[in-house]
Amino acid sequence: MATKFDRLRNFIFRRRRAYRAVFQPGGVLGPSGEIVIADLRDFCRATSTPAVVSPGTQSIDPMATGIAIGRLEVWHRIMQNIHVSDADLYKLVERERERLQGDDQEE
Fold first, then answer.
1. Of 16-20, 32-36, 69-73, 76-80, the least confident
2. Is residue 41 within 8 Å of 75, Cβ to Cβ?
3. In degrees, to the nearest 5, what angle opens at C-alpha 69 toward C-alphas 64 and 74?
4. Helices (H) and strands (E) in the chain, counts
5. What whole-number distance in Å separates Cα of residue 70 and Cα of residue 11?
6. How far is CA 92 from CA 9, 17, 35, 80, 83, in A?
7. What are 53's strand-pairing partners?
8. Residue 6 carries which DSSP code?
């Protein structure tokens, strides 16, 4: 019978494989992947500040800045799932397993 840990580990590894299959089929970022990653990089403001200045008030626009931060979070999520090493992934799974064990003990 699969434990919470086993289900979590399988979920995380399956998700990483899915991200890599989309962005790096065959383990390499191909021409189409490069185009999509470049577009996402620009759209998500991955190489610039997420702070957006309102042209009207010349001050930081909190709503537009919040949207830009959300886009940047998406960029980071994609990059983490593409570039995470097995060792780092196992550390993540182990930390989550320990957290789940702590939750079980509190119940």
1. 32-36
2. yes
3. 125
4. 4, 0
5. 24
6. 9, 16, 30, 12, 14
7. 60
8. H
String of b and e for 76-91 (b: at least 16 CB within 10 Å)?
eebbebbebeeeebee
* CA–CA gap between residue 57 and residue 96 (Å, rounded): 45
Q: Kindly report, residue by residue over 4-55, the tens digit of the pLDDT.
A: 888 888 888 899 889 888 888 877 778 888 888 889 999 999 888 999 999 9
Count Cα neighbours of 49 within 13 Å in the Cβ-side half-sphere: 5
The pTM assigned to this predicted structure is 0.69
- φ, ψ of residue 60 to 5 degrees: the values are -65, 130
Distance CA 30, CA 23 (A): 8
Burial class (CB in 10 A: 0-12, 13-18, 19+), 44: buried
Report the chain's C-alpha Rg in angstroms: 19
Identify the three-state secondary structure at position 76. helix
